[in-house]
Each structure stands twice: as structure tokens, then as C-alpha cells.
Design a protein that fits this description.
The chain is mostly helical. The protein is built from four helices and two strands; from the N terminus they run αββααα.
Length: about 120
């Protein structure tokens, strides 16, 4: 838990510059990085739940479920920080909402791909 708090604080302490695919520069703000970390954690949790459902090995199923449960705390902490930053910096709220919708669309597409793959089996 301490590592997670340190990680989140380090992200908020600075703005990062990332090069995009076109060679230009995109400014990654605090809220961008926090939302990205939150979405990654949620995506990982969804994958772990899927792995648990897909396996018949009881030990593996238990491991995947435990890892998914452990991520709940991280997700809650990141969500709390996103909410705090949004309340302190209202201009981030609209940006954050757009990112959440984009992530939701990506997760739905991933789930549809997984469903299609399962149908092919």
C-alpha cells in the first residue's frame, strides 16, 4: 500500500512529456496519468477475472480471484485520487470524463473480442 501511495504522489509531482506516434509531443497532465493508471488497473482486474472463469485448475482460479481482489484497494485509492484532483482542478473534470468514456469503449471492444474468440472455440 505504501508503494502505491508513493507511486501516485510521484506522478502528481510532475508533468511528463511523451512523444506520440507522429513524432510530435503530447503533454501528459497529472489527471491523464492518474486516469491511465486507474484504467490500466481496472483492465488488469477484468483480465484476471476472465482468466479465473476460463480456467478449470482450481489453484489457478483461486490465485486469479485473489489477485483481482487485491487490486480493489489499488483501484479505490487511484479513484479517490482522481476524484480529489478533479475537485481541486475543475478544468480536469471534462478531460477526465472524456478519458473514462474512451476507456469504457475500449473495454467493451475487448470484451466483444473475447466473446468472439470464445465462440470460435
Amino acid at each position: 500500500m505504501r508503494i502505491t501511495k508513493t507511486f501516485v504522489n510521484n506522478i502528481e509531482g510532475r508533468k511528463l512529456l511523451n512523444k506520440n506516434l507522429c513524432g510530435g509531443i503530447t503533454l501528459m497532465t497529472t489527471i491523464n496519468k492518474l486516469q491511465q493508471a486507474l484504467n490500466s488497473a481496472k483492465g488488469l482486474q477484468a483480465d484476471l477475472k476472465t482468466f479465473s472463469m476460463d480456467t478449470e485448475d482450481q489453484q489457478a482460479k483461486q490465485m486469479f480471484n485473489q489477485l483481482s481482489t487485491n487490486l480493489d484497494t489499488t483501484i479505490q485509492m487511484l479513484q479517490g485520487r482522481v476524484d480529489f484532483v478533479n475537485s481541486e482542478e475543475p478544468q480536469y473534470l471534462q478531460q477526465s470524463l472524456g478519458m473514462q468514456q474512451q476507456q469504457k469503449n475500449q473495454q467493451q471492444a475487448q470484451q466483444q473480442n473475447k466473446n468472439n474468440q470464445n465462440k470460435l472455440r
